[in-house]
């Protein structure tokens, strides 16, 4: 097994690009291990609807990264107290979905540290009935990634804040995350330990599991390609938000001027259908508004720009433009 | 393990049914059983021309996402949209209602490179 040095990077966009780059480009004759720690971020499952997973205002106010990963499963919160491990291997027809195989060495290290860790359900590692690690996989052709989180001393309050979804009434095929009772590994340790020390212990433990072990530093040329993948994919709105499964959203609100009922259909992040119902009275037909919003990104800024030159009272009577924008895109 | 003799196969565990210049593609009984409960089928190449062995989509089963590969070069002309509502059909009827895409074949000479049922059987050691 070869250990890939991520050189201490904590940018989740870069770390996920590095992981995918290694999967697709590194030699099929070796197994690889990668560790990474991300600064505050929400990592969305491959087929999830980002808007159904995050508290957008909170994420924006606190500069939390939102990045989609290529593996399955639900959204997770990462910060500098969470260590991610990733095995990049061939899949032999037996490893796929075999979470036991790659979590076993990790669990063994945790057991040696005195934790009563065990694999629970299909792919969670638990200590005392609380989840400390979630895992997922991605496979392409002969190669696969089996990776997981390890909550060491993550700010668990932030997990709840960042993943507290405020935008409901979305009907989509994306599968929503299931919340679990979580805990930090540090809570179960007798003596305090820094995450750097934990990382070293884990590496040492995994090292014993697999005999020849060397470290690999990417070349400048390889890093260039990792950065290119980051720019083309993991930095983009189209991947992190737009790639969500198509969804319908209905938003209704009663104003003094009357009730406004919106039906919006979003595909690849863009508004594909926008219909306004209600019992308000305006002097202009709402079709004009529907046409303006059709085809734009379903994002607050884009909606605001599209309505820039509109006098909203012409359409609905006595309501503020901000109120209408919040109805199109905002918290419930 | 069900491996219908009238179909063609790939080493990536896909089946192909040829009908003139149209190929219907799905994943095999072996593949669906290895993956487990399928929760999402993602095809983002509809109406695109994709080369053989390039990725045409992916399938997610209990936290595992796997890429899907084109068995033949051609245009992806249809996606089985029923799978959006009921991806589990891939598990229950992989060779029937669980089909995934239809391809307009661009190079019919590639058909000869597909595996027959016997050859696929030896790939999975059945």
Automatic annotation (TrEMBL), chain A:
It comes from the Bacteria. Keywords: ATP-binding, Ligase, Nucleotide-binding. GO terms for cellular component: cytoplasm. GO terms for biological process: protein lipoylation. It comes from Aureibaculum marinum. This is lipoate--protein ligase. CDD domains: LplA (cd16443). Pfam families: Lip_prot_lig_C, LplA-B_cat. SUPFAM superfamilies: Class II aaRS and biotin synthetases, SufE/NifU. Its EC number is 6.3.1.20. Residues 27-214 form the BPL/LPL catalytic domain. The keyword Nuclease does not apply. The keyword Metal-binding does not apply. It catalyses: L-lysyl-[lipoyl-carrier protein] + (R)-lipoate + ATP = N(6)-[(R)-lipoyl]-L-lysyl-[lipoyl-carrier protein] + AMP + diphosphate + H(+).
Automatic annotation (TrEMBL), chain B:
HAMAP family: GcvH (MF_00272). This is Glycine cleavage system H protein. The gene is gcvH. Belongs to the GcvH family. The modification N6-lipoyllysine is found at residue 63. The keyword Transferase does not apply. Its cofactor is (R)-lipoate. The glycine cleavage system catalyzes the degradation of glycine. The H protein shuttles the methylamine group of glycine from the P protein to the T protein. The keyword ATP-binding does not apply. GO terms for biological process: glycine decarboxylation via glycine cleavage system; protein lipoylation.
């Amino acid at each position: 097994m070869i250990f890939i040095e991520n050189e201490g990077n904590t940018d989740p966009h870069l770390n996920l690009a590095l992981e995918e780059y290694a999967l697709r480009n590194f030699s099929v004759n070796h197994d690889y291990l990668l560790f990474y720690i991300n600064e505050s971020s929400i990592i969305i499952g491959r087929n999830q609807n980002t808007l159904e997973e995050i508290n957008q205002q909170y994420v924006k106010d606190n500069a939390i990264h939102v990045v989609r990963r290529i593996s399955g499963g639900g959204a997770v919160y990462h910060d500098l107290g969470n260590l991610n491990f990733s095995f990049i291997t061939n899949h032999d027809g037996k490893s796929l979905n075999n979470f036991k195989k790659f979590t076993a060495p990790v669990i063994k290290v945790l057991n040696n540290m005195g934790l009563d860790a065990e694999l629970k359900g299909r792919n969670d590692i638990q200590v005392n009935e609380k989840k400390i690690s979630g895992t997922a996989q991605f496979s392409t052709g002969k190669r696969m990634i089996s990776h997981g989180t390890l909550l060491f001393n993550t700010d668990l309050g932030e997990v709840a804040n960042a993943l507290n979804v405020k935008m409901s009434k979305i009907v989509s095929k994306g599968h929503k995350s299931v919340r679990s009772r979580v805990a930090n590994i540090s809570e179960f340790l007798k003596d305090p330990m820094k995450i750097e020390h934990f990382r070293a212990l884990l590496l040492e433990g995994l090292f014993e599991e697999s005999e020849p072990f060397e470290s690999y530093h990417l070349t400048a040329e390889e890093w260039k390609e990792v950065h290119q993948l980051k720019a083309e994919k993991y930095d983009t709105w189209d991947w992190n938000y737009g790639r969500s499964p198509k969804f319908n959203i209905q938003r209704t609100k009663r104003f003094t001027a009357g009730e406004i009922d919106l039906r919006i259909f979003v595909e690849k992040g863009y508004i594909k259908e926008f219909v306004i119902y209600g019992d308000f009275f305006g002097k202009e037909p709402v079709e004009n508004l529907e046409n303006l919003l059709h085809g734009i990104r379903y994002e607050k800024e884009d909606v605001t720009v599209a309505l820039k030159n509109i006098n909203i009272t012409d359409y609905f009577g006595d309501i503020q433009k901000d109120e209408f924008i919040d109805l199109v895109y905002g918290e419930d | 393990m069900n491996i219908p003799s009238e179909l063609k196969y790939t080493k990536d565990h896909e089946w192909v049914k040829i009908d003139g210049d149209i190929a219907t593609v799905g994943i095999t009984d072996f593949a669906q059983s290895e993956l487990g409960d399928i929760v999402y089928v993602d095809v983002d190449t509809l109406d695109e021309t994709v080369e053989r062995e390039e990725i045409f989509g992916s399938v997610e089963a209990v936290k595992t996402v796997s890429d899907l590969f084109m068995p033949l070069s051609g245009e992806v002309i249809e996606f089985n949209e029923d799978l959006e509502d009921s991806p589990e059909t891939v598990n229950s009827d992989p060779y029937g209602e669980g089909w995934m895409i239809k391809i307009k074949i661009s190079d019919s000479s590639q058909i000869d490179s597909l595996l027959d049922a016997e050859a696929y059987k030896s790939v999975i050691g059945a």
